[in-house]
């Protein structure tokens, strides 16, 4: 069910303007305070570690978590360690991934208000089993600060389109970087691997889904049933990226942050059918042909894209907020 806050689309969002696809009118939509720090003067004197504790405390109200995260972006966020990113160890396992075909109609109907079409969900079928080796995955998506260091060190021209005029947004240092290409994400992982001597890369599609769901078939990293307070999506989010890790109730079973919402995350795989499945040439496949899969949803999209099993990709338009996170071979 939608709430009074929840925008409604009821049409294929790819046929609409960006604002209409987000369920927003052409007029200004206020989300959050005009001055996010004004109501929290006690945080101004807090040290970085204390601010992290507030930002990642699910018992704190969102406004206070957001204020703490905003301050961390200005004073230096200790969770950002560019050459040694915090990571979760994911154990080897045989896991069940994907979606049972009998559930396609129900999932489509649940998200009909977001303009979801049945063929988009059919790409998640069938349920299949995969044997995955142990790996590590970053606790957070790659941030603006980390991506800046990559650009400085390499002289790359792979600028994020979200950096207006190519200018680094210093006040958003601890926000996920967006929008970058899949090739830029690969280049970042290769650069960091050379710089550190470690084996960084993007996660495979199966690894990403396992890290998000724990391999138990849950709909979202926090469990079954969409909860808008657990992720930065268009339903109740601020309509912009947020600092990493300020939706702690949305962490995955492995303690990984922001696998639902904030920015979409490229994985290592191009789109193709799952084992035993059929290729679905939906509008994304028809428009782009071969494309890199992205997972997790974003601040510009509805909660349907935040489902653990949802497969997506990039269109060349601003509503597609594409970022990435690192995995590491062990």
TrEMBL record:
UniProt-listed Gene3D superfamilies: paralog of FGE (formylglycine-generating enzyme)
Domain Sulfatase-modifying factor enzyme-like: 117-327
InterPro entries attached to this UniProt entry: CTDL_fold (IPR016187), Sulfatase_Mod_Factor_Kinase (IPR051043), SUMF_dom (IPR005532), SUMF_sf (IPR042095)
Highest taxon in the source lineage: Bacteria
Protein name in UniProt: Formylglycine-generating enzyme family protein
Organism in which the protein naturally occurs: Streptomyces gamaensis
Organism classification: Bacteria, Bacillati, Actinomycetota, Actinomycetes, Kitasatosporales
């Amino acid at each position: 069910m939608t709430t009074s806050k929840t925008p409604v689309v009821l049409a294929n969002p790819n046929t609409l303007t960006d604002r209409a696809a987000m369920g927003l009118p052409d007029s200004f939509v206020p989300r959050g305070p005009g001055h996010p720090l004004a109501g929290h003067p006690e945080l101004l004197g807090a040290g970085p570690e204390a601010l992290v504790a507030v930002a990642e405390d699910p018992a704190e109200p969102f406004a206070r978590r957001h204020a703490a995260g905003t301050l961390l972006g200005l004073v230096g966020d200790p969770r950002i360690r560019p050459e040694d990113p915090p990571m979760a160890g994911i154990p080897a396992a045989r896991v069940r991934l994907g979606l049972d075909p009998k559930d396609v109609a129900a999932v489509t109907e649940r998200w009909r208000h977001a303009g979801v079409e049945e063929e988009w969900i059919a790409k998640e079928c069938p349920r299949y089993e995969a044997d995955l080796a142990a790996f590590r995955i970053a606790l957070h998506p790659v941030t603006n600060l980390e991506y800046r260091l990559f650009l400085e060190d390499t002289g790359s021209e792979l600028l994020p389109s979200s950096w207006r005029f190519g200018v680094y947004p210093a006040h958003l240092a601890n926000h996920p970087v967006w929008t970058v290409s899949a090739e830029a994400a690969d280049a970042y992982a290769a650069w960091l691997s050379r710089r550190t001597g470690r084996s960084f890369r993007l996660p495979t599609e199966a690894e990403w889904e396992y890290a998000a769901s724990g391999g138990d078939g849950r709909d979202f990293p926090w469990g079954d049933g969409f909860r808008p307070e657990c992720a930065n999506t268009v339903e109740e989010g601020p309509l912009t990226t947020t600092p990493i890790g300020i939706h702690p109730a949305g962490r995955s079973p492995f303690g990984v942050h922001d696998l639902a919402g904030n920015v979409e995350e490229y994985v290592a795989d191009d789109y193709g059918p799952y084992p035993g499945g059929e290729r679905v040439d939906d509008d994304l496949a028809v428009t782009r042909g071969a494309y890199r899969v992205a997972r997790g949803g974003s601040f510009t999209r509805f909660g349907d894209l935040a489902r653990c099993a949802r497969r997506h990709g990039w269109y060349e338009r601003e509503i597609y907020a594409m970022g990435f996170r690192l995995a590491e071979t062990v």
